[in-house]
Each structure stands twice: as C-alpha cells, then as structure tokens.
Design brief:
This protein is mainly α. Helix 1 packs parallel to helix 2. The protein is globular and about 50 Å long. The model has no long low-confidence stretch (mean pLDDT 91).
C-alpha cells in the first residue's frame, strides 16, 4: 500500500511540475510553435529514476496542452510523443546507459510533433525544417537541461526515489 501511495505521489508531483514548467515557457512564448523550448521536457529523464514518471509526464503533457489551448491533435499526438519518449527512457536508460535517457523523447518528439504542426496548425514550413527546429528544441530541453537535472538529482537520488521499490 505504501509503495502505491509513493508511486502516485511521485507521478502527481511530476505531472504538476510539468504543467508549471510548460506554463512558464508558454508565458515566455517558448512552449509552442515551430521553435519550442519547453523547460518541462527536461523532466523526461525522470523515468530513469522511477516508473511513476511515465504516467506523470503523460498526464502533465495532456494537461499542459489543454491549458495552453493546443489543438486536439496536439493534445493527443503531442502527449503520445511524450509517453513514447518516457517509456523509451525507462527502458533505454535502465538497460543500456543512463546518459542515453534523453534520446527517446528527443527522437519521439522530433518525429511526431512536426506532423502535428503541419496538419493541426497548418504551419507552412517543410517537414525536414520542422524536424530540425523541434529536434533542436528537444536537444536543448531533454538533452542539455535533462542531463543537468540528472546531475543535480544523482547526489540526492536515494532521498527522493529509492524509497520506492
């Protein structure tokens, strides 16, 4: 019972953090469009530490997309990209190398979000250009900020995550 409560608490906190960070980026004009820098995407490394991050990120992304007025296809497919990335992080980071944890969300978003931008929002840019811009934003968010987050978490990891088995 205690493990389930900890799992739910971790997931809820991660979802809330995702929403707050996305709304902060939105207020700065960075969260949506062809060029995106969602600070919340740094959290996509968290499935390396806890499986609770998978539903937390997915729910956080859904809520963020709804709150920022995203198109229904963005709510669905953008959130699915985050879910795919989170699951990939969980497996790749744990099975191969923890420093590869940002790769799945970078790849998932780079491949999925440009189609959403073109078909849901009518962004006129070519798919390859959109993949480059979304990919660059994901490298900064997931890669640079995500790795910085991991380096910050590692020294205190046992106090945050290891109570959950």
């Amino acid at each position: 019972m205690r493990d389930k409560i900890i799992f739910l608490a971790h997931g809820a906190v991660i979802a809330a953090l995702y929403v707050v960070l996305t709304l902060t980026a939105e207020a700065l004009g960075l969260a949506n469009g062809a060029i995106q820098l969602r600070f919340s995407e740094a959290l996509t490394v968290l499935p390396f530490y806890t499986p609770a991050a998978i539903p937390g990120l997915f729910i956080g992304c859904i809520l963020s997309n709804i709150l920022t007025g995203a198109h229904i296809f963005d709510i669905i497919f953008g959130s699915l990209a985050t879910l795919i990335g989170a699951v990939g992080t969980y497996f790749l980071g744990r099975k191969v190398n923890k420093w590869l944890s940002p790769v799945p969300p970078i790849v998932a978003n780079t491949l999925i979000v440009p189609f959403v931008l073109q078909y849901a929002y009518g962004v006129p840019d070519g798919l390859l250009f959109l993949m480059a811009t979304v990919g660059a934003g994901e490298v900064l968010s997931c890669g640079v900020l995500g790795i910085a987050l991991m380096k910050g978490i590692d020294p205190v990891r046992r106090y945050i995550f290891d109570k959950q088995k």
